[in-house]
Amino acid sequence: MGAADCRGAVLAFVAWGFWRASQPPAPYFQGQMEARESDIAPKVTARIARVAVKEGQHIQPGDLLIEMDSPEVQAKLAQAQAAKDAAQAVSDKAQRGARPQEVQMARLSWQRAQAAADLAKTSYHRVESLFQQGLVSAQKRDEARTNWRASDAQAAAAQAQYDMAASGARTEDKAAAAAQARQVDGVIAEVEAARAETQLRSPVGGEVASVLAKAGELSPQGVAVVTVVDLQDQWVVLNVREDQLQRFAVGSKFTGRLPALDRTAEFNVYHLGVLPDFATWRTTRGSQGFDARTFEVRARPAAPIEGARPGMSVVVE
After folding, report:
1. Distance CA 188, CA 83 (A)
2. What integer pLDDT is reported at residue 198 of this predicted model?
3. Residues 204, 230: contact at Cβ < 8 Å?
4. How far is CA 9 from CA 12, 32, 137, in A?
5. Which residue from 48, 45, 44 is spatially nearest to 67, judged by alpha carbons?
6. How many CA atoms lie less than 13 Å away from 38 in the CB half-sphere?
7. Separation between Cα atoms, residue 151 and residue 148, nearest integer Å
8. Which of 171, 179, 225, 285 could make an SS bond with 213 (beta carbons 3.0 to 4.6 A apart)?
């Protein structure tokens, strides 16, 4: 090859280099793996007695996480139980009615009042006969008649007392007493539920990602103490500018590389969502171009990726 040919080859290589440098770089996206996490918090305020799990431990739904000690819950349960006993006693009394001795006393009182009324009636008839004969005054007759009527009214009242004792409480009173007992049962059930919450159990299965509780600490209501991550429910998150979004349509597939595992995997896009305005790509020249929004792309692995962990990078070229 002559000198001219060499110079031509060098010029061609330099020109090719300038052409390559002027070409836009190939699209390159970097995301990271995410997984479903559950922050588990107690429903009652109590002091932590024992932590039953450690970070990295695999658990099943229903496994014990934290044991808590709450004297307040125990005190409320004792109060509710005492209220239940009192309400049940009132209900039993209403259902059973008066005691046999009380019914017997009411019956004897009625009989005594009826005997007095019968005697007053007989006395009145005698005085009435004497009045007709002119042997007693009208005043005496009126007094005898008034005494008879008063005694008869007392006998009627005594009979009503006896009937009430014999028939027991009214239906409305029985229903009210029974309802009061059921209401207290509800209070006990509520306190029992609070006591059950002192044994904090996991509603989900997975791996314990973090344990924020320590024995002896006071755990406030609603503050997470354990985080559980489900490694079977993972996805990758990419931030993609809208002018490059066509290859990430919902339902499409792409291949990503996980540098931490030195392997590739196929992903299925299932979600697109626009990010807030502060994440928008903005043009540098106000007279040209437009503001390009940024979208969040979520995609699940087509098959489980063994060894994948939340936070691992995924590179898509």
Report:
1. 9
2. 81
3. yes
4. 5, 45, 162
5. 48
6. 18
7. 5
8. 225
CA-CA distances (angstroms) from residue 296 to 46, 139, 146, 302?
40, 110, 101, 19
Please report how many Cα atoms fall inside a 13 Å half-sphere around the Cα of residue 166, on the Cβ side.
12
Percent of the chain whose predicted confidence (pLDDT) is above 90: 24
CA distances from 158 to 42, 98, 106, 107, 123 (A): 62, 16, 7, 8, 21
The pTM is what?
0.56
Total Cβ atoms within 10 A of residue 128: 15
Point out which residues pair with 250 in neighbouring strands.
none
Q: Cα(144)–Cα(304) distance, rounded to whole angstroms? A: 108
φ, ψ of residue 28 in degrees (nearest 5): -140, 125
How far is it, in rounded angstroms, from Cα 176 to Cα 237? 61
Q: Which residue has the higher pLDDT, 137 or 170?
A: 137
CA gap 230, 203 in Å, rounded:
12
DSSP, residue by residue, 232-252: EEEEEEEEEEGGGGGGG-TT-
Q: What is the pLDDT of residue 46?
A: 84
Question: Would you say 206 and 226 are in contact if contact means Cβ atoms under 8 Å apart?
Answer: no
Please state, in angstroms and as integers, the Cα–Cα distance from residue 82 to each residue in 95, 181, 196, 202, 242, following that order.
20, 11, 20, 33, 67
**209: enclosing H helix or E strand:** strand 206-211
Show me where the domains of the chain are located: 26-67+208-316, 75-193
Consecutive H or E run containing 122: helix 100-132
Residues near 243 by Cβ (< 8 Å), separated by ≥ 6? 292
3-state helix vs strand vs coil in the chain, percent to 5: 45, 25, 25
